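Researcher: We plan to redesign the surface later, but first we want a full-length starting point. C-alpha coordinates attached.
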Protein backbone atom coordinates (compact mmCIF):
# COMPACT_ATOMS: atom_id res chain seq x y z
CA UNK A 1 0.00 0.00 0.00
CA UNK A 2 1.43 3.42 -0.97
CA UNK A 3 1.61 6.01 1.80
CA UNK A 4 -1.15 8.37 0.68
CA UNK A 5 0.52 11.71 1.48
CA UNK A 6 3.72 11.02 -0.43
CA UNK A 7 1.87 9.50 -3.34
CA UNK A 8 -0.40 12.52 -3.68
CA UNK A 9 2.57 14.87 -3.48
CA UNK A 10 4.49 13.00 -6.14
CA UNK A 11 1.55 12.81 -8.50
CA UNK A 12 0.46 16.41 -7.95
CA UNK A 13 3.91 17.89 -8.55
CA UNK A 14 3.63 19.69 -11.92
CA UNK A 15 7.40 19.72 -12.45
CA UNK A 16 8.27 16.11 -11.83
CA UNK A 17 9.13 13.49 -14.40
CA UNK A 18 6.92 10.37 -14.55
CA UNK A 19 7.47 8.66 -11.22
CA UNK A 20 6.22 5.17 -11.83
CA UNK A 21 8.28 4.03 -14.80
CA UNK A 22 11.66 3.85 -13.10
CA UNK A 23 13.70 0.70 -13.11
CA UNK A 24 14.78 -0.93 -9.90
CA UNK A 25 18.27 -0.06 -8.72
CA UNK A 26 19.78 -3.11 -7.13
CA UNK A 27 22.73 -1.47 -5.37
CA UNK A 28 21.85 1.96 -4.06
CA UNK A 29 24.79 4.32 -3.82
CA UNK A 30 25.67 6.90 -1.16
CA UNK A 31 23.51 9.93 -0.34
CA UNK A 32 23.47 12.27 -3.34
CA UNK A 33 22.70 15.91 -4.10
CA UNK A 34 20.72 16.11 -7.34
CA UNK A 35 22.32 12.79 -8.30
CA UNK A 36 25.83 14.17 -7.71
CA UNK A 37 27.97 12.35 -5.21
CA UNK A 38 29.43 14.57 -2.53
CA UNK A 39 32.65 12.57 -2.55
CA UNK A 40 35.30 12.86 -5.26
CA UNK A 41 34.57 10.37 -8.04
CA UNK A 42 37.36 8.66 -9.92
CA UNK A 43 38.85 11.03 -12.49
CA UNK A 44 37.38 14.22 -10.96
CA UNK A 45 39.84 16.97 -10.02
CA UNK A 46 37.88 18.17 -6.97
CA UNK A 47 34.92 17.45 -4.75
CA UNK A 48 31.45 18.45 -5.86
CA UNK A 49 30.53 21.65 -4.00
CA UNK A 50 34.10 22.44 -2.93
CA UNK A 51 35.64 25.92 -3.13
CA UNK A 52 37.70 24.89 -6.16
CA UNK A 53 34.55 23.62 -7.85
CA UNK A 54 32.74 26.95 -7.38
CA UNK A 55 35.75 29.00 -8.50
CA UNK A 56 36.17 27.02 -11.71
CA UNK A 57 32.42 27.15 -12.37
CA UNK A 58 32.64 30.93 -12.06
CA UNK A 59 35.57 30.94 -14.49
CA UNK A 60 33.50 28.88 -16.91
CA UNK A 61 30.75 31.48 -16.59
CA UNK A 62 33.18 34.28 -17.47
CA UNK A 63 34.30 32.47 -20.61
CA UNK A 64 30.84 31.37 -21.67
CA UNK A 65 29.08 34.73 -21.25
CA UNK A 66 31.88 37.21 -21.97
CA UNK A 67 33.04 35.67 -25.23
CA UNK A 68 29.62 34.80 -26.67
CA UNK A 69 27.99 38.17 -25.99
CA UNK A 70 31.02 39.95 -27.48
CA UNK A 71 30.86 37.76 -30.58
CA UNK A 72 27.29 38.85 -31.36
CA UNK A 73 27.78 42.59 -30.70
CA UNK A 74 26.85 43.51 -34.32
CA UNK A 75 23.50 41.71 -34.05
CA UNK A 76 22.91 43.16 -30.58
CA UNK A 77 23.64 46.67 -31.87
CA UNK A 78 21.10 46.35 -34.67
CA UNK A 79 18.54 44.85 -32.30
CA UNK A 80 18.93 47.74 -29.84
CA UNK A 81 18.60 50.32 -32.63
CA UNK A 82 15.45 48.64 -33.93
CA UNK A 83 13.99 48.89 -30.44
CA UNK A 84 14.75 52.58 -29.88
CA UNK A 85 14.27 53.87 -33.45
CA UNK A 86 11.99 51.48 -35.39
CA UNK A 87 11.19 54.13 -38.00
CA UNK A 88 14.83 54.27 -39.13
CA UNK A 89 15.85 50.65 -38.55
CA UNK A 90 12.92 48.74 -40.05
CA UNK A 91 14.33 45.20 -40.07
CA UNK A 92 17.47 43.23 -39.30
CA UNK A 93 18.89 43.52 -42.80
CA UNK A 94 17.87 47.16 -43.13
CA UNK A 95 19.45 47.85 -39.75
CA UNK A 96 22.76 46.33 -40.82
CA UNK A 97 22.64 48.24 -44.11
CA UNK A 98 21.94 51.61 -42.49
CA UNK A 99 24.61 51.07 -39.82
CA UNK A 100 27.31 50.12 -42.33
CA UNK A 101 26.35 53.02 -44.59
CA UNK A 102 26.58 55.56 -41.78
CA UNK A 103 29.38 54.17 -39.58
CA UNK A 104 31.24 51.74 -41.80
CA UNK A 105 31.93 48.11 -40.96
CA UNK A 106 33.77 49.15 -37.78
CA UNK A 107 30.54 50.73 -36.56
CA UNK A 108 29.08 47.26 -36.07
CA UNK A 109 31.56 46.66 -33.24
CA UNK A 110 30.45 49.65 -31.16
CA UNK A 111 30.01 48.71 -27.53
CA UNK A 112 32.22 45.63 -27.58
CA UNK A 113 34.28 46.66 -24.52
CA UNK A 114 31.40 47.22 -22.05
CA UNK A 115 29.76 44.10 -23.47
CA UNK A 116 32.81 41.95 -22.76
CA UNK A 117 33.46 43.35 -19.29
CA UNK A 118 29.82 43.48 -18.22
CA UNK A 119 28.80 40.04 -19.39
CA UNK A 120 32.00 38.46 -18.07
CA UNK A 121 31.08 39.74 -14.62
CA UNK A 122 27.51 38.63 -15.12
CA UNK A 123 28.65 35.15 -16.18
CA UNK A 124 30.86 34.84 -13.11
CA UNK A 125 27.92 35.53 -10.82
CA UNK A 126 25.25 33.76 -12.87
CA UNK A 127 26.93 30.37 -13.20
CA UNK A 128 29.02 30.51 -10.03
CA UNK A 129 26.16 31.51 -7.73
CA UNK A 130 23.75 29.13 -9.48
CA UNK A 131 25.92 26.21 -8.45
CA UNK A 132 26.13 27.62 -4.91
CA UNK A 133 22.40 28.24 -4.50
CA UNK A 134 21.49 24.92 -6.08
CA UNK A 135 23.45 23.06 -3.40
CA UNK A 136 22.27 25.35 -0.57
CA UNK A 137 18.60 24.96 -1.48
CA UNK A 138 19.04 21.22 -2.06
CA UNK A 139 20.46 20.82 1.43
CA UNK A 140 17.56 22.80 2.88
CA UNK A 141 14.97 20.67 1.07
CA UNK A 142 16.51 17.30 1.74
CA UNK A 143 17.21 14.53 -0.74
CA UNK A 144 13.64 13.42 -1.41
CA UNK A 145 12.10 16.88 -1.78
CA UNK A 146 15.04 17.93 -3.94
CA UNK A 147 14.08 15.26 -6.44
CA UNK A 148 10.33 15.87 -6.27
CA UNK A 149 10.67 19.65 -6.63
CA UNK A 150 13.83 19.81 -8.70
CA UNK A 151 12.45 22.23 -11.30
CA UNK A 152 11.32 24.58 -8.55
CA UNK A 153 14.82 24.31 -7.13
CA UNK A 154 16.36 25.20 -10.53
CA UNK A 155 14.05 28.21 -10.78
CA UNK A 156 14.84 29.46 -7.27
CA UNK A 157 18.61 28.95 -7.58
CA UNK A 158 18.83 30.67 -10.96
CA UNK A 159 16.67 33.62 -9.86
CA UNK A 160 18.83 34.11 -6.77
CA UNK A 161 22.03 34.00 -8.82
CA UNK A 162 20.73 36.40 -11.46
CA UNK A 163 19.74 38.98 -8.83
CA UNK A 164 23.42 39.49 -8.00
CA UNK A 165 24.61 39.00 -11.58
CA UNK A 166 22.52 41.96 -12.80
CA UNK A 167 23.99 44.28 -10.18
CA UNK A 168 27.39 43.42 -11.63
CA UNK A 169 26.15 43.86 -15.22
CA UNK A 170 24.13 47.10 -14.90
CA UNK A 171 26.93 49.74 -15.23
CA UNK A 172 28.42 48.20 -18.36
CA UNK A 173 24.99 47.52 -19.87
CA UNK A 174 24.11 51.21 -19.45
CA UNK A 175 27.34 52.25 -21.22
CA UNK A 176 26.83 49.70 -23.99
CA UNK A 177 23.31 50.85 -24.82
CA UNK A 178 24.30 54.52 -24.71
CA UNK A 179 27.19 53.92 -27.15
CA UNK A 180 25.11 51.79 -29.50
CA UNK A 181 21.89 53.82 -29.62
CA UNK A 182 23.11 57.44 -29.45
CA UNK A 183 25.38 58.11 -32.45
CA UNK A 184 27.90 60.80 -31.61
CA UNK A 185 27.52 60.48 -27.83
CA UNK A 186 30.64 58.37 -27.34
CA UNK A 187 32.57 55.81 -29.36
CA UNK A 188 34.43 54.02 -26.58
CA UNK A 189 33.90 52.97 -22.98
CA UNK A 190 36.61 55.39 -21.84
CA UNK A 191 34.65 58.27 -23.37
CA UNK A 192 31.20 57.08 -22.33
CA UNK A 193 31.57 56.22 -18.63
CA UNK A 194 33.05 59.58 -17.46
CA UNK A 195 30.54 61.52 -19.57
CA UNK A 196 27.56 59.63 -18.13
CA UNK A 197 28.86 60.11 -14.59
CA UNK A 198 29.38 63.85 -15.14
CA UNK A 199 25.85 64.29 -16.52
CA UNK A 200 23.78 62.05 -14.22
CA UNK A 201 26.05 60.81 -11.45
CA UNK A 202 26.21 57.22 -10.23
CA UNK A 203 22.47 56.77 -10.87
CA UNK A 204 23.17 56.74 -14.62
CA UNK A 205 24.76 53.30 -14.26
CA UNK A 206 22.09 51.74 -12.06
CA UNK A 207 18.81 53.29 -13.19
CA UNK A 208 18.33 50.30 -15.47
CA UNK A 209 18.91 47.64 -12.82
CA UNK A 210 15.21 47.07 -12.05
CA UNK A 211 14.29 46.61 -15.74
CA UNK A 212 17.38 44.40 -15.97
CA UNK A 213 15.97 42.23 -13.18
CA UNK A 214 12.64 42.18 -15.05
CA UNK A 215 14.42 41.01 -18.19
CA UNK A 216 17.19 38.81 -16.89
CA UNK A 217 15.61 37.00 -13.94
CA UNK A 218 12.77 35.43 -16.02
CA UNK A 219 15.32 34.82 -18.79
CA UNK A 220 17.75 33.06 -16.46
CA UNK A 221 15.04 31.06 -14.72
CA UNK A 222 13.93 29.77 -18.12
CA UNK A 223 17.53 29.29 -19.25
CA UNK A 224 18.54 27.05 -16.37
CA UNK A 225 15.28 25.22 -15.62
CA UNK A 226 14.47 24.56 -19.28
CA UNK A 227 18.04 23.43 -19.95
CA UNK A 228 18.15 21.07 -16.97
CA UNK A 229 14.82 19.46 -17.81
CA UNK A 230 15.54 19.33 -21.56
CA UNK A 231 18.80 17.49 -20.91
CA UNK A 232 16.90 15.06 -18.70
CA UNK A 233 14.26 14.46 -21.40
CA UNK A 234 16.82 14.14 -24.22
CA UNK A 235 18.69 11.39 -22.39
CA UNK A 236 15.42 9.67 -21.50
CA UNK A 237 13.60 9.79 -24.85
CA UNK A 238 16.03 10.82 -27.64
CA UNK A 239 19.58 9.66 -26.95
CA UNK A 240 19.66 5.92 -27.75
CA UNK A 241 21.99 4.98 -24.88
CA UNK A 242 22.48 5.96 -21.23
CA UNK A 243 24.52 9.07 -20.47
CA UNK A 244 27.17 6.96 -18.73
CA UNK A 245 27.83 5.20 -22.06
CA UNK A 246 28.06 8.44 -24.07
CA UNK A 247 31.46 9.91 -24.86
CA UNK A 248 32.33 13.42 -23.66
CA UNK A 249 31.82 14.71 -27.23
CA UNK A 250 28.36 13.14 -27.45
CA UNK A 251 27.42 14.62 -24.09
CA UNK A 252 28.51 18.08 -25.29
CA UNK A 253 26.29 17.73 -28.37
CA UNK A 254 23.33 17.06 -26.08
CA UNK A 255 24.35 20.11 -24.06
CA UNK A 256 24.36 22.30 -27.19
CA UNK A 257 20.94 21.10 -28.39
CA UNK A 258 19.36 21.55 -24.97
CA UNK A 259 20.94 24.99 -24.71
CA UNK A 260 19.47 26.13 -28.02
CA UNK A 261 15.99 24.92 -27.13
CA UNK A 262 16.22 26.75 -23.81
CA UNK A 263 17.49 29.88 -25.56
CA UNK A 264 14.44 30.22 -27.80
CA UNK A 265 12.12 30.22 -24.80
CA UNK A 266 14.44 32.61 -22.95
CA UNK A 267 14.26 35.19 -25.73
CA UNK A 268 10.46 35.18 -25.84
CA UNK A 269 10.01 35.42 -22.08
CA UNK A 270 12.44 38.31 -21.58
CA UNK A 271 12.01 40.40 -24.74
CA UNK A 272 9.46 43.01 -23.52
CA UNK A 273 11.72 43.96 -20.61
CA UNK A 274 14.72 44.03 -22.97
CA UNK A 275 12.95 46.62 -25.11
CA UNK A 276 12.31 48.77 -22.03
CA UNK A 277 15.97 48.54 -20.96
CA UNK A 278 17.19 49.62 -24.40
CA UNK A 279 14.97 52.72 -24.48
CA UNK A 280 15.56 53.54 -20.81
CA UNK A 281 19.34 53.61 -21.12
CA UNK A 282 19.12 55.75 -24.24
CA UNK A 283 16.98 58.53 -22.77
CA UNK A 284 17.89 60.79 -19.86
CA UNK A 285 15.36 61.11 -17.06
CA UNK A 286 13.09 58.36 -18.37
CA UNK A 287 11.40 55.75 -16.17
CA UNK A 288 10.57 52.10 -16.82
CA UNK A 289 6.83 52.70 -16.41
CA UNK A 290 6.89 55.69 -18.76
CA UNK A 291 8.82 53.79 -21.43
CA UNK A 292 6.48 50.80 -21.15
CA UNK A 293 3.40 53.00 -21.62
CA UNK A 294 4.93 54.76 -24.61
CA UNK A 295 5.99 51.55 -26.38
CA UNK A 296 2.64 49.86 -25.90
CA UNK A 297 1.81 46.16 -26.35
CA UNK A 298 3.10 46.07 -29.93
CA UNK A 299 6.23 48.16 -29.48
CA UNK A 300 7.75 45.94 -26.79
CA UNK A 301 7.99 43.07 -29.30
CA UNK A 302 10.07 44.97 -31.87
CA UNK A 303 13.29 43.13 -32.69
CA UNK A 304 12.05 39.77 -31.38
CA UNK A 305 13.25 37.74 -34.38
CA UNK A 306 16.76 39.18 -34.09
CA UNK A 307 16.77 38.45 -30.39
CA UNK A 308 15.57 34.85 -30.84
CA UNK A 309 18.43 34.23 -33.29
CA UNK A 310 20.91 35.94 -30.99
CA UNK A 311 19.75 34.44 -27.69
CA UNK A 312 19.19 30.94 -29.09
CA UNK A 313 22.72 30.85 -30.45
CA UNK A 314 24.14 32.54 -27.36
CA UNK A 315 22.49 30.19 -24.90
CA UNK A 316 23.54 27.09 -26.81
CA UNK A 317 27.15 28.28 -27.06
CA UNK A 318 27.20 29.37 -23.41
CA UNK A 319 26.12 25.96 -22.16
CA UNK A 320 28.53 24.27 -24.58
CA UNK A 321 31.48 26.40 -23.40
CA UNK A 322 30.51 26.07 -19.74
CA UNK A 323 30.24 22.29 -19.98
CA UNK A 324 33.50 22.15 -21.97
CA UNK A 325 35.26 24.02 -19.16
CA UNK A 326 33.94 21.42 -16.71
CA UNK A 327 35.23 18.64 -18.96
CA UNK A 328 38.64 20.31 -19.40
CA UNK A 329 39.19 20.84 -15.67
CA UNK A 330 37.67 17.43 -14.85
CA UNK A 331 34.97 18.90 -12.64
CA UNK A 332 32.12 16.71 -11.38
CA UNK A 333 29.29 16.71 -13.95
CA UNK A 334 26.19 15.19 -12.35
CA UNK A 335 24.01 12.93 -14.52
CA UNK A 336 20.26 13.64 -14.79
CA UNK A 337 18.64 13.24 -11.37
CA UNK A 338 17.19 9.89 -10.32
CA UNK A 339 14.63 9.12 -7.65
CA UNK A 340 16.33 8.38 -4.31
CA UNK A 341 16.09 4.83 -3.08
CA UNK A 342 14.44 6.00 0.15
CA UNK A 343 11.62 7.63 -1.83
CA UNK A 344 11.18 4.56 -4.01
CA UNK A 345 10.72 2.46 -0.91
CA UNK A 346 8.21 4.89 0.60
CA UNK A 347 6.22 4.86 -2.63
CA UNK A 348 6.39 1.09 -2.86
CA UNK A 349 8.34 1.15 -6.12
CA UNK A 350 10.92 -1.40 -4.98
CA UNK A 351 10.40 -4.93 -3.81
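Model: Full-length starting sequence:
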Amino acid sequence: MYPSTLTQLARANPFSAPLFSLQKVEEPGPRRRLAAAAAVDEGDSCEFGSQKYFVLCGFGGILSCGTTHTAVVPLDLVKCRMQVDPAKYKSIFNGFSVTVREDGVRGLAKGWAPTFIGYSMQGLCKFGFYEVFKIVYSDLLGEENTYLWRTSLYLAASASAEFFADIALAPMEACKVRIQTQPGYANTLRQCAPKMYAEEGLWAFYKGVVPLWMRQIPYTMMKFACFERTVELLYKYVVPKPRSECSKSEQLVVTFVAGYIAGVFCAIVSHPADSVVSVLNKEKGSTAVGVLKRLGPKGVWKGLVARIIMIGTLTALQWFIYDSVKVYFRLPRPPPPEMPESLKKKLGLTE
